[in-house]
Amino acid sequence: MDAVLRAELAELEAVRRYRRRRVSAPQAPSSPTHVTVDGTPCLAFCSNDYLGLSGHAQIRQAFVAAAERYGVGSGASHLVSGHSPAHHELEEALAEFIGRPRALVFSTGYMANLGIASALVSRGDRVLEDRLNHASLLDAGLASGAEFARYAHLDTAALERRLASTGSARRTLVWTDTVFSMDGDVAPLESLAAITARHGAWLAVDDAHGIGVLGATGRGSLEAQAVSNDAVPIYMATFGKALGTFGACVAGSEALIEMLIQRARTYIYTTALPPAVAAATRAALRVVQEESWRREHLCSLIARFRAGAAQLGLTLAPSATAIQPLLLGAEADALNVSAALLAQRIWVTAIRPPTVPVGSSRLRITLSAAHTPSDVDRLLSALETIGCGSNKPITR
Ligand SMILES: *Cc1c(COP(=O)(O)O)cnc(C)c1O
User: Which pLDDT tens digit goes with each residue over 33-54?
Assistant: First the structure.
């Protein structure tokens, strides 16, 4: 076995797609952008902690207090004995925050997406997804057993053509990221809602990069695009990004949530989140609402980065979110620019295929409310020193 695997690993190395982890930790929990990377102090621009909440004092305290009360492990799945008051209270707070009758907590976003598909579609149904959806939506669609197709990125006309072509599908699920995780651009929710309604399809959205960070009160992409909750019957969001904790939820109607409890295999057959993580997430929802300055500060950093990068002649992606990719193309180029930044103690991981399409390797720069304007300036001047000559526009 090892000889076979070593040969495969050598092939990955040869095409510069070998992945290596670095050991990193915040230098202090209250400043999550200042990290050590394999022991070296660095300024990080690659985490999804968009609001800088992962080490927030109130959220940490909620976590510790709940661990003191409930212990660490939940002990079982939700349907056996793992559903604690901390989980239940979080679900109620989520339903109220998101503005839906019910919410259901899953242990991860990946599992929430697999759960949606396993509960709602199977052989004889159809799943249509944006080509650049997160891997968990694509995997979920493929694993569901339903007929599965991808439409061109953000191409509502292509989606509508597929919906119009008469198939024999019992039901059709249309599924999209709200904010695309490697590109930072956003799905046109109003038109997707209108198209799916017109064709009697069910619309599901993954708001992993929207909840907490988008919309005037942090309620996510629907608030940001002024789309009513009724227009999008299946809403999913994760806690590991802007909320700074861990886990995920699906929010929607009473019937949707009850069906997920009956049929979502990744809900039924897995251990419930540690209750302390649920309590911390509930505290994070409060901070998201109370500290709106974090969203405002982040917006000003995004504007500062884009203006500075344009001045340097860098080609930016069409993104107004905290995800600001710098497209480089070849795997080696992305690795080289990432290494040159690290030499200047700035950490941005290179993103390569199969995470992104072949030929679109990039630096996925992410900004956080924990950054200062001078942090952004430091990144810009490092990029200037390195000279990203091979930086190109994103073309589709
Ligand atoms: C991160 C992410 C997920 C997975 O969430 P986890 O809780 O990390 O498993 C799902 N969808 C999207 C769009 C993501 O970016």
Answer: 999 999 999 999 999 999 999 9
156 close to 188: Cβ distance less than 8 angstroms: yes
Find the 112 Cα to ligand 1 centroid distance in Å.
Answer: 9
Q: Is 209 a catalytic residue?
A: yes
Report the distance separating Cα 146 and Cα 152, nearest Å: 19
392 an active-site residue? no
Which of 116, 88, 145, 81 has the alpha carbon at shortest distance from 263?
116
Catalytic residue among 56, 83, 134, 209: 209
Which helix (H) or strand (E) is 177 found in, with range?
strand 172-177
CA of 109 to the centre of ligand 1 (A): 5
Cβ distance 328 to 391 under 8 Å?
yes
Does the pTM surpass 0.85? The reply is yes
For 36, list phi and psi in degrees, rounded to 5.
-110, 140
**Residue 34 annotated among the catalytic residues of the structure:** no
User: What are the backbone dihedrals phi and psi of residue 179, each rounded to the nearest 5 degrees, phi first?
Assistant: -115, 125
pLDDT tens digit string along 217-266?
Answer: 999 999 999 999 999 999 999 999 999 999 999 999 999 999 999 999 99
- Nearest-atom index, ligand 1, CA of 238: 7
